[in-house]
Amino acid sequence: MRINGAVALVTGANRGIGYAFTQALLDQGAAKVYAGVRDPATVTDPRLTPLRLDVTDPAQVAAAAEAAGDVSIVVNNAGIATGTGLFDGSLDGARRELEVNYLGTWSVSRAFAPVLAANGGGALVNMLSVASWRASAAGPGYAASKSAQWSLTNALRLGLSEQGTLVVGVHCGFVDTEAAAWADAPKISAATVAEQTMLGILGDHAEVLADEVARQVKAQLSQAVQSPGVVAR
User: What is the pLDDT of residues 184-223, one digit of tens each?
Assistant: First the structure.
């Protein structure tokens, strides 16, 4: 799919990976990029078109789809991690992760599906994670929300195939952003994630494995399930 001359929407676009997506789209020649954010005042880049969009608010999602009827690329990037652990922390955090990461993506995708169809099919990009495939006792709610979002991405690929919409799932490990500042682990830059995603869109790829961590975890999915300290035979 071509990006040059296209109109795009990025959710959670005012910082981190979302902002990197907006820059990569502009670098590829996008004619307009809507920055979907809860507070439009936080969008300070004059090249972006601010759009009020809380992905958990059905009225705002519907209004955004109405206002951005010229969109042919939608990037579902908005997401949260609350830090709720397996045995500590309020389950309200896990509920919030599901509400934003999973149901928010579903809501935006559902609202913009007819917009993409009207504009020739276009592309729908979902920012996922290796957490889609790898369990975590430190953040099971986040991992569950990303697993659900991955499943949703696969369902959207089936459901939008007839209208010619390219559905792209983007996976990576830790990204060097404020949200992952706590993690003492190798990190990929937000710009690299965005650049790899642009290549995925241009190449009509259904999946982007943006770093070595994602490639390794994906390759391990076919291995036998193991318990800690148990060697599979």
Answer: 777 799 999 999 999 999 999 999 999 999 999 999 998 8
User: What are the chain's domains?
Assistant: 7-222 (3.40.50.720)
Q: Rounded to an integer, what distance in angstroms lies between the CA atom of residue 142 and that of residue 86?
A: 11
Q: Contact, 141 vs 134, CB < 8 A?
A: no
Q: Could you tell me if 155 and 142 are in contact, meaning their C-beta atoms sit under 8 angstroms apart?
A: no
Q: In this structure, what are the phi and psi dihedrals at residue 208, rounded to the nearest 5 degrees? A: -120, 120
Strand partners, 209: 171
- Gyration radius of the chain's alpha carbons: 17
**Ramachandran angles phi, psi of 107, nearest 5°:** -60, -45
- Reading phi first (left if > 0) and then psi (alpha if -120 to 50, else beta), residue 29 is in left
pLDDT for position 176: 78
Q: What is the pTM of this model?
A: 0.93
- Phi, psi for 88 (deg, rounded to 5): -145, 160
DSSP string, the chain: ---TT-EEEEESTTSHHHHHHHHHHHHTT-SEEEEEES-GGG---TTSEEEE--TT-HHHHHHHHHHTTT-SEEEE---------SSSS-HHHHHHHIIIIIIIHHHHHHHHHHHHHHTTS-EEEEE--GGGTS--SS-HHHHHHHHHHHHHHHHHHHHTTTTT-EEEEEE-S-BSSGGGTT--S--B-HHHHHHHHHHHHHTT-SEEE-SHHHHHHHHGGGSPP--TT----
